[in-house]
Amino acid sequence: MPPIPSARSAVHPHVEILQAIYTDLPKIAEHAADDIVLHRADRSVEDLRVCRGLQAVLAHEQALLRVTGDTLVMDVDHIMANDHFGTVLGTLRATRPLPVAMPFCGLWRFADGLIVEHWENAYDPAALQHLFTRPVPPTTSS
């Protein structure tokens, strides 16, 4: 009887893809289908806030980086993935426009090795949206 492989010995390729994306958000372009659908964290029942297509998703990610003055970091605690789905738990952090640290859960759907759908889930999406849209306080010089 052949040995049973350890669950820790093999990392699913979708875990590696998600690790790469959470380290560098624009890398999503290397792993997403052209017709990817992204469900934004600031969606509501009335306004679904969906980005459709790779260019729209990239524009959304670049806008998040821009609004945070490129301080946005996704600290990952756990990633699980199989052939169909991936889940990432962690903390979103940024220092601009104001400091924020908020738990998140990203859900990803894969088909043929590519990302075809992504749901952003922030712990308090309304507070996060409010923070990202408020003006940066002026700095005072001494």
Automatic annotation (TrEMBL):
InterPro entries reported for this sequence: NTF2-like_dom_sf, SnoaL-like
Superkingdom of origin organism: Bacteria
Pfam family name, one: SnoaL_2
Domain SnoaL-like intervals: 24-118
Endpoints of the signal sequence: none
Record protein name field: SnoaL-like domain-containing protein
Source organism (scientific name): Streptomyces spectabilis
